[in-house]
Fold this protein.
Amino acid sequence: MEKRTDKNSYTILFAIGMVLVVGSLLAFAAASLKPKIDENRRIEKQQNILYAMGVNNNEEGSVAFISTDVVADEFTKYIKKQIIIQGDKVTEDANAYLIDIKKEQTAAKTASYQRRLPLFIGEKDSKTFYIAPIRGKGLWDAIWAYVAMDKDMVVQGVFFDHTGETAGLGANINKRFFMDDFIGEHLLSNGVFKGIKVAKGNADPLNKDKTDHEIDAIAGATITGDGVSAMLRSELKLYVPYFKTLKTN
């Protein structure tokens, strides 16, 4: 006599039941963890923004962020304004740092959509910093950056990171020896946007010339470097109209 558990219908029903149970458990776990995940993302973004404008715990050659237990207070202390640029419209928004740059890039592929550009305005040591979050493509996956500039679009600091660039090569974009080279680099030339190129065979390897629009490349990381160059060029160019208004105000 055939057992009920030997029937194909039983196997199918059991599989469906397991999918429903596991799916429900995963959905519950995701819902339970979402507030913590969102909080960690907020902390990370605030640390990155502050790092770019020089608010960090760096020691010689190291990369050290403001600690998680004080980052909210430090963010409030140094970031005086958050704005969203959308075409000619500039809106102050305390949650501008929560804008998903990837989603904005995707939405902007539709001609009718006007992309939202977050910008963070900070003050430190009597200087004003304008920090732009940007995103691009490296060799294997996404790369991104927070670029702090003055009103003339001269770089005051950067923080780069990546999803999965090659260890010891492209992954080194988040190391001090690479990031610090950007400090003082000019993005404009006589008012025209030029960007910054990560150049292989750069004639200025010590990076003393800050107006040549070039940074020495990381050996063995040509494609990642090209991605950084393209990201800086395409993303920061979008902010030029806003910086021009700073000259007229």
In short: DSSP finds six helices and ten strands in the chain. The longest strand covers residues 127-137. The chain has two domains: 4-38, 46-248. The mean pLDDT is 90.
